[in-house]
């Protein structure tokens, strides 16, 4: 019985150390892993070969804010093949200032169980601009 | 004219400047001022809406605005830190008198006991790399496009070609793809990408965007607006190879071709500069050659991680505060750090030996070319101070190493940093 073993090189993207490791796969199951220097990297590699996920960062329109756009981030990584659909969904969203960092902008985006939240505070335009403080 | 006096004045409200201000405040400076030319604090982090910031500093993955927000709140919590927004510094004199201007106060004359330069860096433009062709609209630096797309609500074009595979270029390839643009290709003149692996994977491979290594732009077409570019393969001397040209149709060319520390103010003061980093020569306290003038962040050398920028800002702010309090840090014997044999730059360039006996000295280095399995060695008086095996070394990623405190006594006037290939051969 010849077990078909495949090796996949995975460039870890969890942190800027950018470890390049190798995952061995046989019969669709992970049989070995080498070259990742932390457990987070191992988790990433496991996920990358089974169900790849990406954090989505984008912007939504905001009215009445000091800037016309509000940056947003998915609170957890989303399935890689749903990223474009989620970006398309965000292009239809508009919110009103003020917004605080962490406020939910789209709850449970496309039913994937992940909230998209504001990644910064956005004060309303009327609020006094920051001049001399302190 | 409004006149004000401060202990520590920080020029620049990005990550280096904010960390310097917080640290100056926490280390005895009574009155601290941050001068920022933009409409808000945070610097370029505010347009870097992607995640991956703060893993070292906050043990979590933050976006650029998220990282900036944490430092902006730290500044806000310290009532002795004042902030001037929308304010441009015009000049800094050797006696630490700063002339600045803004639309609210007009001209301001600010005096300081210590100054921290934290002006960051700017991008190389089309003129800096002399791309031939006509001069239509639609040629932008990647960072300018990033601000347009992420903060102002404009797209720079619909069909995009990106020259340069630095991180900003790669991240813009993804960002514009998410916004519905057709990113045709990323061209890179070197035989390797200058970006982090994570960005090559996440920003190009994920979106099926081709990366053409050893290629450059040899022509820009269009009269009023870019209609396309001609690119060509380059040889080992980076010269275009005749006959290898091909055209790409596009309405926008983004340039991600390198960053230059922004040192007009420091240069005017006659501060000693490092021709390779493009920033001032600093010691491990981030003091420049002019006592009382400190520098931190991308104004010193271009960093790859904001966490290290904050660390450098903290150091500069602390010693600026000590200088302002009369605890001068400009005494002590100096040793030069010399980068050679495959190491291109090392920061700090100078180690001050009387202030450091108890603290290790952290060096930030960049290698000249990609290497595998090399040994980094620090030598002084032919004694080995430090040796570290690097499985991989890339020009785009800083190498960080600490000279242990107990080794500092053995340092002579010069410390040499070299790369050796395994087997004793020079890393070249």
UniProtKB/TrEMBL annotation, chain A:
<dbReference type="Pfam" id="PF07892">
    <property type="entry name" value="DUF1667"/>
</dbReference>
<protein>
    <submittedName>
        <fullName>DUF1667 domain-containing protein</fullName>
    </submittedName>
</protein>
<dbReference type="InterPro" id="IPR012460">
    <property type="entry name" value="DUF1667"/>
</dbReference>
<dbReference type="InterPro" id="IPR036593">
    <property type="entry name" value="CPE0013-like_sf"/>
</dbReference>
TrEMBL record, chain B:
<dbReference type="InterPro" id="IPR051691">
    <property type="entry name" value="Metab_Enz_Cyan_OpOx_G3PDH"/>
</dbReference>
<dbReference type="Pfam" id="PF07992">
    <property type="entry name" value="Pyr_redox_2"/>
</dbReference>
<dbReference type="InterPro" id="IPR023753">
    <property type="entry name" value="FAD/NAD-binding_dom"/>
</dbReference>
<feature type="domain" description="FAD/NAD(P)-binding">
    <location>
        <begin position="6"/>
        <end position="302"/>
    </location>
</feature>
<dbReference type="InterPro" id="IPR036188">
    <property type="entry name" value="FAD/NAD-bd_sf"/>
</dbReference>
<keyword id="KW-0560">Oxidoreductase</keyword>
<protein>
    <submittedName>
        <fullName>FAD-dependent oxidoreductase</fullName>
    </submittedName>
</protein>
